[in-house]
Design brief:
The chain is mostly helical. Helices cover 72% and strands 0% of the residues.
Length: 117
Amino acid sequence: MEALANARAAMIGAKGPAEKAAANDQISSALGRLMVVVENYPNLKANENFRSLQYSLEGTENRIDQMRRVYNESVQEYNTDLVVFPASIVASMSGFQRDDAYFKTDAAARNAPKVQF
């Protein structure tokens, strides 16, 4: 829980896409570790408050994933606009440059944690 609180604080204090992406990876990692702990405690898993928290976390993960897609699509659209006529002329005269700051998930975060009893 402490790692999750620290990761959340890092997300709130992040000042750019790279810092927000790193903080997001910390949150994903902390949530994965929390779920492994929960699997070892069936009484906690059956608790109504925890089920509500689990449902809320699932919704948050879905919203983060959706916003990551929206952000990446916006970056892609921006990069495309930089090379398409006539916007490319204005972009080159104004000094706009290609942005490669996509939000990417950590490869380890894509795999579900393994639970052993």
